[in-house]
Design a protein that fits this description.
- This protein is an alpha/beta fold.
- The protein folds into three domains: 6-235, Rossmann fold, CATH 3.40.50.980; 276-401, Luciferase, Domain 3 (Luciferase, domain 3), CATH 2.30.38.10; 406-502, ANL, C-terminal domain (GMP Synthetase, Chain A, domain 3).
- Strands 2-1-10-9-11-12-13-14-15 form a nine-stranded mixed β-sheet. Strands 4-3-5-6 form a four-stranded parallel β-sheet, sandwiched between helices. A four-stranded antiparallel β-sheet has the order 16-17-19-20, with no helix packed on it.
- Helix 1 packs across helix 8 and helix 2 (35-51) packs across helix 3.
- The structure holds malonyl-coenzyme A (MLC) and adenosine monophosphate.
- Malonyl-coenzyme A binds at residues 208-209, 212-215, 235-236, 254, 256, 280-281, 305-307, 408-411, 441, 472-473.
């Protein structure tokens, strides 16, 4: 089936033998969607996209709340030969304007509730069709789908054709669209499905957002390849997860999931039936790993990935899941550690830049050949910006990041973007944004602000100016008004000193 469409063909194979089995179980209303149902809906969406004039390679952007229709839209887009471009639901119109301008999608699907604010933006960016999809499963996308019949067999797409563009923040404050091919997604899903021993008996607790690599590709593609089920939850909720664990087998989550679940009194009982807990997207503290093992008897399997590369390493399914490490390079993926200044390979467990090569590595940044050339070497090794080391027996430890990036509960936040906005506020002389340890989020955003002399801005004024200009999760959790910022002899702000000064800000609280 879907013979000429590389990704669709692979993702459909396992379920052909079990069309009536449940693919998606909606947690909120207990609706069950069989594989047959799911693929028929995706086929109808693909037909609707074609009817709307979508051509191979066109972008289909969406910013909608999590639902099974999103997964159908993803697969329908692939079948239609187009390129899926999901956007974080927290983005405000100003941010959406940037993404639409940069990616020039032919279709943008937004939440019905947001259509008023987004119509003008879509028009000014020459989006041909603005469709809607609401959390309750209604909208013009669904109307267009329902006007079509199933039976669409997929537009021809080869392994090297684009399947998706996912935006990842940039160090300059400008987000970059990572172009992912059919091969990138298919090969990685295949590797993970095998490494984590997924089968059609598995039921995956899916409480992650559907607009990132983790919840979209890792969770969904692996489940499709294995023919397993997903219990789709709109939000992360510890009560709901503990209630559902006894009927499930695997959970994928960011470390915050595990930190919060450890506070739940039922965890120990609930987890008994689970075969696998997977963590990634941010560092899992050794303490969390150890405590989890103590409470549930199971070692969390930590893996490491990124938008540009999908998953690179994983702790083993059998064998030691070593706390504080991200495991071993996945089969078929080369990982080297290099000297950041010379690019020469470092051996003997020395710390350096992690570089990755393999079928998982993206094609480049959308419309940014210069940026692509800076990060993707001619020999196809991708310079990750993560600093790490490899032990004698192949386990990789991430030590720090060379990129000025904050990872807050799995969301990436680039300080530059916030600094630029803070610096625009009348009365602000300059600012520096840092990430500091946070017991719940892993890292939290803190802004150190220097005011111009004669100005006395308070926290509310600063926060009011930031609201509606950037997504809520990027807002600083704390503002520090300081007389001046620490600088080195070259005049560069020394963020390490700020991190030392404010590192204890959240140590005793769960903000
Ligand atoms: C929510 N808030 C956050 C936040 N998430 N603030 C900082 N960092 C975050 N990650 C804020 C909201 O803006 C809101 O602010 C308040 O918290 C409550 O919002 P919520 O939606 O109720 O939050 P909650 O449900 O508690 O969300 C926490 C979370 C979520 C852990 C469930 O952050 C999450 O789903 N994270 C996963 C992200 C993810 O999938 N990353 C994978 C990237 S792919 P206010 O002001 O309105 O109260 C990748 C590659 C790889 O990295 O290797 O996987
Ligand atoms: P993103 O750009 O959202 O894909 O985030 C990718 C980044 O998340 C990587 O470059 C790492 O810095 C970080 N990351 C992913 N997985 C892990 C992990 N298991 N431990 C530490 N950091 C991680």
């Amino acid at each position: 089936m879907y013979e000429s469409n590389h990704l669709a063909k692979h993702l459909r194979t396992a379920s052909l033998k079990q069309n009536d089995a449940v693919f998606i179980h909606n947690h909120e209303n207990d609706q069950l969607i069989s594989f047959e149902n799911f693929f028929q809906n995706a086929e109808k969406i693909a037909s609707a996209l074609i009817s709307a004039g979508i051509k191979p390679g066109d972008r289909v952007a969406m910013q909608v709340e999590k639902s099974s229709s999103v997964v159908e839209l993803y697969f329908g887009t692939i079948l239609a030969g187009a390129c899926f471009l999901p956007l974080n639901t927290a983005y405000v119109p100003e941010e959406i304007d940037y993404f639409l301008r940069d990616s020039q999608p032919a279709i943008f699907v937004c939440d019905t509730l947001k259509i008023q604010g987004l119509t003008k933006i879509a028009k000014s960016n020459k989006v041909c069709h603005l469709w809607t999809l609401s959390a309750d499963g209604t909208g013009t996308l669904v109307d267009a789908r329902n006007a079509e019949s199933p039976g669409f067999n997929g537009v021809k797409r080869d392994h090297d054709d684009l399947a998706a563009i996912l935006y990842t923040s940039g160090t300059t404050g400008r987000s970059k669209g990572a172009m992912l091919t059919h091969m990138n997604l298919q090969s990685n899903a295949e590797t993970l499905f095998k490494s984590w021993h997924f089968t059609n008996k598995d039921i995956l607790i899916h409480a992650l957002p559907l607009y990132h690599t983790h919840g979209l590709f890792v969770a969904t593609n692996v489940s499709l390849l294995a023919g397993s089920s997903m219990l789709l939850m709109k939000n992360f909720n510890t009560d709901a997860i503990c209630k559902r664990m006894p009927q499930s087998s695997v959970m994928m989550g960011v470390p915050t999931f595990y930190v919060r679940l450890l506070e739940h009194p039922d965890l120990n009982n609930a987890a008994k039936n689970m075969r696998l807990f997977i963590s990634g997207s941010a560092p899992l503290l050794s303490q969390t790993h150890d405590l989890w093992k103590e409470v549930t008897g199971q070692a969390i399997l930590e893996r490491y990935g990124m938008t540009e590369t999908n998953m690179n390493t994983s702790n083993p399914y059998y064998g030691e899941r070593r706390a504080g490490t991200v495991g071993i390079s996945l089969p078929g993926i080369e990982l080297i550690v290099t000297d950041p200044s010379t690019g020469r390979i470092l051996k003997d467990g020395r710390t350096g830049m992690i570089e990755i090569r393999g079928p998982n590595v993206f094609k480049g940044y959308w419309g940014m050949p210069k940026k692509t050339a800076e990060e993707l070497r001619d020999n196809r090794f991708f310079i990750t910006g993560d600093l790490g080391k490899i032990s004698k027996d192949g386990y990789i430890t991430l030590v720090s990041r060379s990129k000025d990036l904050i990872i807050s509960a799995g969301y990436n936040i680039y300080p530059k973007e916030i600094e630029q906005l803070v610096n625009l506020i009348d009365g602000v002389l300059e600012s520096a944004v840092i990430g500091v340890p946070h017991p719940d989020l892993g890292e939290a955003v803190v802004a150190a602000i220097v005011l111009e002399s004669g100005f006395s801005l308070n926290e509310d004024i600063i926060m009011d100016s930031l609201h509606n200009r950037i997504a809520n999760f990027k807002l600083p959790k704390k503002l520090m008004f300081v007389k001046k910022l620490p600088r080195n002899s070259m005049g560069k702000i020394q963020k390490n000193i700020l991190r030392e000064s404010y590192g204890g800000t959240f140590s005793n609280s769960l903000d």
